[in-house]
Amino acid sequence: MKLLRGFLWLLGFQLLGHAVVELLSLPISHAMAGLLLLLAWLLAKRRLNESVAMASQALIPLLAMLIMPGVVGVFFVIDEFAGHWTAIMVALGIGTFLSVLTTLWLMRRFMPREAVNADEQGRQP
């Protein structure tokens, strides 16, 4: 039941994001607005809802499949990218670099100090 409740919370925030974007004519995707609203809600509560965490964990293995429709959709507008390959490659490179840096920062910030120290001791000869 917690899993279903978590999915309903996630779906509710996605629908709320859709409504906010449509009402305010914001230039962002509906799903991104929903995620930002979910983040604001979690920050305001200052704790993670257990049912949302359970639903999120269930979606992580499906992440590649959830991204696939957007990737496939690019093939329908491929002609529009004709003169912009350099900009696209630079944006992809910078985006990848920033996402790796962000992941590293988050891991260092939220991993327990004992695990970090043990990992560093394991690398020393």
UniProtKB/TrEMBL annotation:
Keywords: Cell membrane, Membrane, Transmembrane, Transmembrane helix
Annotated TM spans: 27-44, 56-78, 84-107
InterPro entries registered for this protein in UniProt: LrgA/CidA (IPR005538)
A Pfam match: LrgA
Predominant location: membrane
Membrane-protein topology: Multi-pass membrane protein
Example of a GO cellular component annotation carried by this entry: plasma membrane
Cell compartments where the protein resides: Cell membrane
Full protein name: CidA/LrgA family protein
Organism: Billgrantia pellis
Organism lineage: Bacteria, Pseudomonadati, Pseudomonadota, Gammaproteobacteria, Oceanospirillales
